[in-house]
Amino acid sequence: MAGQVALPHRNIHLLIPKRNPVNGYREYTEEDILLLNRIKMLRMLDIPVSDIRKILYEKEALTSVLNTHLLKIKEEENRLRQNYFLCEELIKMDMSVTDLSEEMLDKMISGKEEYIYQLERIKGQDRIQKIFDISKLTCCAR
Question: How many angstroms separate the Cα of 77 from the Cα of each of 70, 72, 86?
Answer without folding.
Answer: 10, 9, 14
